[in-house]
């Protein structure tokens, strides 16, 4: 019987049956290109090593082609679309014959090294999905802070740029996804845009939930942030064929306005 190279247990997982509430065994078999087998979580526990070396943690075989090595400035350099680790994963849902596990491995390694980034990445998901209530709740939690885990302050969260997503900020993501309510919220909190430039509805919505404007200097203006391609939020808006025409015409996306 094939076993996991880390824990040496059978390649199954115990889960509770929804109908009988009894435990049952389901497959949990992740096979790497080298032929070594792991439980999904057991391999994720080795993420830091794998993300840096791109080698199997058991046999040391190189797992990906077209891979640049790590550097002092970028220990997890494997974000190129040409780099992947194709694996075969058998689970309760069936068999995935060509699953690229590198994005998951890289994310886990980054979060292991930067645990304070977990809420920041959740914040980015909320910006992309237009979850204004979630953003507000997350920022309030950041302001209160329980001190149990490393955490970013609210101003850091708002301006966080994700090295695993081409250095985009929450504002970049909101622009790309057409989330106008989120855009106005972020501009209210973290830009130097005068209050009179905001729609009355946006101001009233912010004031209704007690959202205060941060003391923002021009260099800290969220509109000045540029992604890995050198684009500001204004640049992204200009690429989107009129979706943001009104905001571009009003100049509210331009830093310093």
TrEMBL record:
RING-type domain span: 4-59
PROSITE patterns from the UniProt entry: ZF_RING_2
InterPro entries the UniProt entry points to: Znf_RING
Molecular functions per Gene Ontology: zinc ion binding
Source organism of this protein record: Monosporascus ibericus
Keywords, in A-Z order: Metal-binding, Zinc, Zinc-finger
Protein name: RING-type domain-containing protein
